[in-house]
Design a protein that fits this description.
Blueprint (H helix, E strand, L loop, with lengths): L2 H14 L5 H16 L2 E7 L5 H9 L16 E5 L4 E6 L4 E5 L3 H12 L11 E8 L8 E5 L9 H9 L5 E6 L7 H11 L4 E6 L7 H19 L8 E2 L2 H10 L2 H7 L1 H47 L2 H64 L6 H57 L34 H5 L4 H70 L4 H26 L1
Parallel strand pairs: 1-6, 1-7, 2-5, 7-8, 8-9
Antiparallel strand pairs: 2-6, 3-4, 3-5
Helix pairs in contact: 1-2, 1-10, 1-15, 2-10, 3-8, 5-12, 8-9, 10-14, 10-15, 11-12, 11-14, 12-14
């Protein structure tokens, strides 16, 4: 049987066992939904003007995404399967908006207004995330496509933004085209991508512009360059295709032209191999989770059966021993809380030190831009330096976000690993105590607790000070000798550099602090829930058994026989799921 069949049978078995097991049934139901969804994140990457949007539109079968005549802003667009065409936009202040339309051109226009540099220059609308939902067949098996900013445009921070979210992706489509086949920027970008994405599929777009002989030559050239410059040894062929021809064929329903475009080969590959590859990983993860859930269910059934077998006095004596173990566990839980508070303070001290160092680096970086302008000998302009500051902030802080976040998350991870083990040990002790006291089988779970969530800061690009005279620089500069002009600009720009450094470092510190508190809060909540569940499951089974033992002696044999049959069924289902989890 497949894992889904084991889980569905387990759900039926738990449901038939009564309402007291509804939480276990809900957990299995959630796993079943996750298995059915099975999302696979595929990012489409490449240099500006390689035809990424056209390729995505061809895969979707409709011209939903706007063409990149101008570079897009640094806002990845996530494309999900949905019942209708809908765009969901999340802003930096966490407000949200939805737009639905049956008209594809309206969806295209709405997206263009939010993600194009022409309609949303430098992301002045403050957009954090864009999601597109569409009933495209290619997405039905859980595939999620991600349209990314193109590298090599004038917007340098696009590359950093793309890199920072790639760790969430399962694979990437890297798009080349003949004009020219490979650039240095692409090779440098590819080296970085390979450190974050295990599976990369290479595509040569615009093949309709080439002859068969040229396709062979360019494909071979790309392979050799990738191997020599980036160490990529392609065991698979590069997908050669014409996204433009494929899109036109999809819009007209011409299957022959669709096949000739090369798009059918790529779509079949994505729908087959990649989804299967992702499915295997998902099956293992879900199967292991189901084994852990059924292990808890089995323990509760064993406990009920054991309670029915024991004399009432013996059952009460053992129950009292278990309650003492619970009291010890709760005392240790309080001690864990005190240690967590101490660790939070120590981590905040680390964050404070890192923030001060980052402030120094930021101020130095901006002052270097100022010095470069002064030493250039060209005409000085405050407005030009301000603009350079504004353009330099995003790429600098996107890079620093990655570096500081890694340093801090490593420190958090080191401490949370200790707490994870302590929490798992304590929960295990509660369950082991019940197993020992009531002489029932128990198998420890390897399930982890902590989950760390990442946020994106809203960078302060401009910080106009009221002390700046609201007169165009050119008028003021013309009246000042160069020495006085240098002194004036240096004073004003150093102040601005300090303000920008302070604002952005405080922003990054605040986001990192929120991540830390989220981590601790989620860990504490999950820890308490699991400990409470372990205690309540055991006590609940005991109270139920003691109640039945006190109220009636008849029927216990039948109940015991039924419980043993259920235990056998759970054991069989668990064994099957274990085979899929290996």
């Amino acid at each position: 049987m497949l894992p889904a069949e084991y889980i569905e049978r387990a759900m039926d078995l738990v449901k038939d066992s009564g309402d007291k097991y509804c939480s276990i049934h809900d957990s299995l139901s959630g796993l079943n939904e996750r298995l059915n969804e099975g999302r696979f994140h595929l990012a489409v990457l490449g240099q500006f003007k390689r035809g990424k949007s056209t390729l995505l539109n061809a895969l979707l079968g409709e011209e939903l995404l706007p063409g990149a005549i101008l570079p897009v802003t640094a806002i990845p667009t996530f494309i999900y399967s949905g019942a209708e065409h809908r765009v969901h936009v999340t802003f930096n202040d966490n407000t949200e908006t939805d737009f639905s339309s049956g008209d594809v051109s309206e969806i295209n226009r709405y997206l263009d207004e939010h993600v194009s540099e022409e309609k949303n220059p430098e992301n002045t609308r403050g957009i954090k995330n864009v999601e597109l939902y569409t009933p495209a067949p290619v997405l039905r098996n859980g595939l999620v496509l991600i349209d990314t900013p193109g590298i090599g445009s004038t917007h340098r921070h696009n590359t950093e933004v793309t890199m920072n979210f790639l760790e969430e992706c399962d694979a990437a489509l890297f798009v080349f085209s003949p004009d020219p086949p490979v650039t240095e920027a692409e090779l440098d970008f590819l080296k970085q991508v390979r450190t974050r994405v295990k599976k990369i599929i290479f595509v040569l777009n615009k093949a309709d512009l080439l002859s068969e002989e040229e396709i062979v030559k360019i494909s071979g050239f790309i392979k050799s360059v990738l191997y020599e410059k980036s160490g990529v040894d392609l065991s698979e062929d590069i997908f050669t295709l014409s996204a433009k021809s494929g899109l036109n064929a999809a819009k007209t329903g011409d299957n022959d032209k669709w096949n000739l475009s090369g798009m059918d080969r790529l779509r079949t590959y994505l729908s087959g191999f990649l989804v299967k590859e992702k499915g295997e990983v998902l099956l293992k993860a879900v199967s292991l989770k189901a084994v852990n859930i059924l292990s808890e269910f089995s323990m509760r059934l064993h406990l009920e059966a054991r309670a029915l077998e024991l004399p009432v006095d013996d059952l009460k004596r053992r129950a009292e021993l278990f309650r003492k173990k619970i009291e010890e566990a709760m005392t240790r839980r309080e001690e864990t809380g005190d240690i967590l508070k101490g660790d939070r303070k120590r981590l905040l001290d680390i964050l404070d030190v890192q923030s001060k160092k980052l402030h120094e680096r930021t101020t130095l970086y901006l002052n270097e831009i100022l010095d470069k302008n002064i030493k250039s000998g060209s005409k000085l302009s405050e407005n030009r330096i301000r603009e350079e500051f504004a353009l330099s902030i995003p790429p600098f802080f996107e890079h620093e976000l990655k570096e500081v976040s890694k340093y801090f998350s490593d420190a958090v991870s080191e401490r949370m690993t200790v707490h994870e083990k302590r929490a798992a040990d304590l929960i295990d002790e509660v369950k082991s105590a019940a197993a020992d006291i009531f002489e029932i089988p128990y198998e420890r779970s390897d399930e982890k607790i902590v989950l760390i969530e990442n946020r994106k800061p809203y960078w302060v690009k401009h910080n106009w000070s009221a002390s700046f005279i609201p007169v165009p620089d050119d008028l003021v500069d013309a009246l000042l000798p160069r020495k006085m002009l240098i002194k004036k600009i240096t004073r004003n720009m150093q102040r601005l550099a300090k303000d920008l450094a302070t604002g952005n470092v405080e922003n990054l510190s605040w986001v990192t602090l929120q991540n830390l508190d989220d981590t601790f809060r989620k860990f504490t909540g999950e820890f308490d829930n699991k400990l409470k569940a372990a205690i309540e499951a055991t006590e609940g089974a005991l109270l139920e058994a003691m109640k039945r033992s006190n109220e009636q002696e008849t029927g216990s044999a039948a109940e015991l026989d039924d419980l043993k049959k259920r235990i056998e069924s759970v054991t069989e289902l668990t064994s099957g799921l274990k085979r899929h989890s290996l």
